Amino acid sequence: MVPVIALVGRPNVGKSTLFNRLTKSRDAIVAEYAGLTRDRQYGEAKWQGQSYIVIDTGGLSGDEEGIDAKMAEQSLQAIEEADAVLFMVDARAGLTAADQMIAEHLRKRNKRSFLVANKVDTIDPDLARAEFSPLGLGDASPIAAAHGRGISQLLQDVLGVFKQPEPEPEPEEGAADETEEQALARIPGPSEKDGIKIAIIGRPNVGKSTLVNRMLGEERVIVYDQAGTTRDSIYIPFERDEEKYTLIDTAGVRRRGKIFEAVEKFSVVKTLQAIQDANVVIFVMDAREGVVEHDLNLLGFVLETGRSLVIALNKWDGMEPGERDYVKTELERRLFFVDYADIHFISAKHGTGVGHLYKSVQSAFRSAITRWPTSRLTQILEDAVREHQPPMVSGRRIKLRYAHLGGANPPLIVIHGNQVDAVPKSYSRYLENTYRRVLKLVGTPIRIEYKGGE
Ligand code: GDP
Ligand code: GDP
């Protein structure tokens, strides 16, 4: 399981700055002043091949009302579900009463916590350590989030306590002396044991439990006894048309004989972990509510992780033709960033369209892990360039010479050429669309990476 790390601390200690550095995203707003309310931020991060989820919990003011009152429920829940908390304090500002209250809270919850003193670019790290020792959380790790100082050491300490997952294939270096055959052999297929792992994801009440029940209750499905549950999500192995699958059920439907029972509440962390652990995500939305902001956030996360995606518009039963047209237009307009995903209009309640999900799951999964030889990828590149040349940069034309596969799940296409730093985004999109069309890739994002030199 991917570890979850929550960033906790009062406003302005540098949580967003650290979050952005860890996730390399600019999504979280870095505020120049305290007290700016903002949503929790969830991000995917990777350090030395190990994936983890970071949550920026927003500021805990820890004032006289007590921090419990000040913490949004989602924030509290994030702390509860995190495997470790990075409790950040501001070395420049020194120890405050709010820090004391937060420390007290973490101690009470018995959370695995790491004390982190930020902004040590402004103060001697040894002084910072001494300053915060009264918190009783051990020596503070000195960092300067804004400058990247101390981060490696911190990650080593924090992530060191979690087991290393199976190594992912490193992108092949163009100059590496391994053969293409060897490089391609490192791309994973479906796991023997689990088959295709499908996570059923979506906001509360969109119909996830109903869909899980429907999928498992189908006549053609053989459900095996659960191999055990991990965390809050439930892993249910089954077989359908001689294909193995494992359903990752975030809604917490538990099998008891032939009866299914809903037991858990919605949790963002659980959802993110299930996405991370899946091969294919079935993203469920409620057709009657259309696309809401939270759907977009979750879909953004799915895109970020590169997982294959199938979208299910549920509760399609009993909708008026006018409503249906409206929903379809909305989808087209707002889900353009995941337009590679198949969309199914289903009724989990009545079973309509549910069987068709499998075909999309399969093609999405196969698309994500298929191995394409260098000759094929290069041929497509050459054809694409002939059709539509890359632009000139300071009088010289950008040259794209050859392409090879650098990884799978999602497919990574590495393109070698000259002046590749100057390739415009629109041209990358053109290449991506060309690859998608020619290779008939569905349900998976494609990543394109450029390498300069010869
Ligand atoms: P948050 O409210 O805890 O998320 O804090 P922010 O990340 O928004 O940072 C608050 C302020 O501290 C910003 O002005 C940052 O530029 C500044 N800051 C963050 N990290 C550092 C650091 O390592 N050194 C210094 N000097 N300033 C920092
Ligand atoms: P979850 O919270 O996402 O697991 O959602 P549930 O599966 O518990 O469903 C929430 C509500 O939506 C329940 O009342 C279901 O009966 C209802 N529901 C689920 N699927 C459908 C559907 O396809 N059509 C209709 N009309 N209602 C549905």
From TrEMBL:
Residues 3-166, 196-369 form the EngA-type G domain. This is GTPase Der. Keywords: GTP-binding, Nucleotide-binding, Repeat, Ribosome biogenesis. Transmembrane segments: none annotated. GTPase that plays an essential role in the late steps of ribosome biogenesis. The keyword Endoplasmic reticulum does not apply. Belongs to the TRAFAC class TrmE-Era-EngA-EngB-Septin-like GTPase superfamily. EngA (Der) GTPase family. GO terms for biological process: ribosome biogenesis. GTP 2 binds at residues 202-209, 249-253, 314-317. Associates with the 50S ribosomal subunit. GTP 1 binds at residues 9-16, 56-60, 118-121. It holds the Pfam family KH_dom-like. HAMAP family: GTPase_Der. One of its GO terms (molecular function) is ribosome binding. NCBIfam families: GTPase_EngA (TIGR03594), small_GTP (TIGR00231). It comes from Stutzerimonas kirkiae.
